[in-house]
Write a structure and sequence with these properties.
Blueprint (H helix, E strand, L loop, with lengths): L1 E12 L4 E3 L4 E2 L3 E18 L5 E4 L2 E3 L3 H14 L4 E9 L8 H16 L6 H9 L13 E4 L10 E5 L6 E6 L10 H11 L3 H20 L3 H20 L10 H15 L4 E4 L7 E5 L3 H11 L5 E4 L6 E2 L3
Parallel strand pairs: 5-7
Antiparallel strand pairs: 1-4, 1-14, 2-3, 4-7, 4-8, 5-6, 8-9, 10-12, 10-13, 11-12
EC number: 4.1.1.33
Protein name: diphosphomevalonate decarboxylase
Organism: Lapidilactobacillus dextrinicus DSM 20335
């Protein structure tokens, strides 16, 4: 039995839309920051049992097509026909726009490959994790991570830009709704790709954002990182609002917090909002400003639930 842990990541330049659904190839490259507070632990054991089993939070669940794809990939690489018992626990709300699929499939890739006796490189693990969830390709690494869109299965992988982050960037993850979202990311992406008249412009601007974000990270410019991330996120969400029929992942509290963030900036604090396919905002700021920002938020929204995150580590094996 092998046990692995992987952490979620927040995309600063978003991945939104697949040009090849079967191979999980994105239309554009993306760039993320792995967070230190949210993670998934997954164990895998291959045995001579009759079929694969998936136990999530102590309850047996159906084996999804994505889970089966990763297990089948591992079996093919290992030359094995054994079935797997997979047990997984999320230390992050599931399907709430907090990247639980990223940490889940990254942990699965590490645990399953080790349980099968494989010694895969991190690039190979990134590709394997991508077969379950695109953003999981980035959760193999800590710190800032770039996922290359690539042109085929082997050229679409993530690699670290800076795993040891030595400047005080912080992310305040605000939980306004921990329920599973009504439109899952895959369905939302496909709707945007096929029906938003703005989708091609989104891809073009997102690719251009990669070089700008990379430069901001190299300069350790937290304000520029935040500005770029906020603009990129809202452009992504514009594709959902312009889809046919239109839809949104925003909750009323999401918009309220976004407006508060705009007000916070007028007070001279660098604070920027980003969010993936879910209602829960992540606020990018300087570590020294966290207490002031939280104080302002709590004054307007009492009993606010939030988690302070800093750059987190890459996926790792927990047991041999």
């Amino acid at each position: 039995m092998s046990l692995a842990r992987a952490y979620t990541n927040i995309a600063l330049v978003k991945y939104w839309g697949k040009r090849d659904v079967a191979q999980m190839l994105p239309y554009n490259s993306s760039l993320s920051l792995t967070l230190d507070k949210f993670y998934t632990e997954t164990s895998v054991e291959f045995t001579d049992q009759a079929e694969d089993q998936f136990i999530f939070e102590g309850q047996q669940q159906p084996v999804s097509a994505k889970l089966m794809r990763v297990l089948d990939d591992v079996r093919q690489l290992a030359g094995s026909q054994q079935k797997a018992q997979v047990k997984s626990h999320n230390h992050v709300p599931t399907s709430a726009g907090l990247a639980s699929s990223a940490s889940a499939f990254a942990a699965l890739a590490v645990a399953a490959s080790h349980a099968a006796g494989l010694e895969l490189s991190r690039r190979e693990l990134s590709i394997l994790a991508r077969h379950g969830s695109g953003s999981a390709s980035r959760s193999l690494y800590g710190g800032f991570v770039l996922w290359h869109a690539g042109t085929d299965d082997q050229s679409s992988f993530a690699e670290p830009l800076s795993e040891q982050v030595d400047f005080p960037i912080a992310v305040i993850a605000v939980l306004v709704n921990q329920q599973q979202k009504s439109i899952l990311s895959g369905a939302g992406m496909q709707a945007a790709v096929t029906s938003s008249p703005y989708y091609s412009a989104w891809v073009k601007t997102a690719e251009a954002d990669i070089s700008r974000m990379s430069a901001a990270i190299a300069d350790q410019d937290i304000a520029q990182i935040g500005k770029l991330a906020e603009t990129n996120a809202m452009r992504m969400h514009a594709t959902t609002l312009s889809a046919n029929p239109p839809f949104t992942y925003f909750a009323p509290e999401t918009l309220q917090i976004w407006e508060l963030v705009r007000q916070i900036r007028t007070k001279g604090l660098n604070c920027y909002l980003t969010l993936d396919a879910g209602p829960n905002p992540k606020l990018i700021c300087h570590m020294q400003d966290v207490s002031k920002i939280v104080e302002i938020l709590n004054a307007e929204i009492p009993n606010l639930t939030y988690t302070l995150c800093q750059p987190g580590p890459g996926a790792k094996l927990m047991t041999q």
